[in-house]
Amino acid sequence: MSHAVLTQDAIDLASFISNPYKFGKGGDEKVFEPEGVDEMISHINAAWSIDRHEMAQGSIGQAPDGSTAVGIPVWPKTDLKGRKILEDDNLIVELFPSKYGFLEHTYAYRFTAKPDGRVFAFGGDGTYSEGLAAAAKNADILFVEGITRKNVKFATWGGDTDFDRLSVLNEMIDEGIRNILLAQDGDLY
């Protein structure tokens, strides 16, 4: 069985590609991203070839089938109506334009579960956009990376590293955001 990921950056892609194989559930992964993803994934596969060979010949001792990925470029031209990019018996995935810095092709995603109609929207990192709002409309859960202007200085890349999670949460609540959970790497829910 293969897995699919829709992502806005390359962080942790090598682990996404190799971890299922390491734990015995290998299936060549499919990574959907803007133009150039096929080249990026090809380079990641090449960079991790030594690790795959060690696992196949040593620590895991199984055939290397299912230990790589394929990059599938998604359509850069979409509008506020979204574009369906994936559908199977359980899920519909739609793509919407978003804004992230100066990058031309960034996306927000809308995942609709077919059995019950639940919607999960993913905006990742970036700023407000009409595409993000369209992806998130009537969603059950919206997942975005958030920081406030007041607390950006505390982000590790923003200067002072004395980051106070509770202050960020309270500032977002003060701005009118409701039903919010603040997560950080390593949190369990």
The biggest beta sheet reads: 5 strands, mixed
Overall pLDDT score: 77
Q: Unreliable segments (pLDDT under 50, ≥5 consecutive)?
A: 1-10
Oligomer: single chain
- Distance N to C terminus: 27 Å
Read across the widest sheet, the strand sequence of neighbours is: 4-5-6-7-8
Percent strand: 15-25%
Percent in helix = 25-40%
How does this model look, in words?
With 189 residues, the protein is α/β, with parallel strands linked by helices. It folds into two domains: 4-73, no CATH class; 83-174, no CATH class. Helix content is 26%, strand content 22%. It is built from five helices and eight strands, in the order βαβααβββββαβα. A five-stranded mixed sheet has the order 4-5-6-7-8. A hairpin with a 3-residue loop joins β4 (83-87) and β5 (91-97). Residues 1-10 have low confidence and may be disordered.
SSE topology:
Layout: E1 4-6, H1 13-22, E2 29-33, H2 37-47, H3 49-59, E3 69-73, E4 83-87, E5 91-97, E6 107-113, E7 119-124, H4 130-136, E8 141-144, H5 165-174
Parallel strand pairs: 1-2, 2-3, 7-8
Antiparallel strand pairs: 4-5, 5-6, 6-7
Supply database-style keywords.
single chain; 189 residues; alpha/beta; 5-stranded mixed beta sheet; globular; disordered N terminus
In short:
The chain has five helices and eight strands; from the N terminus they run E-H-E-H-H-E-E-E-E-E-H-E-H.
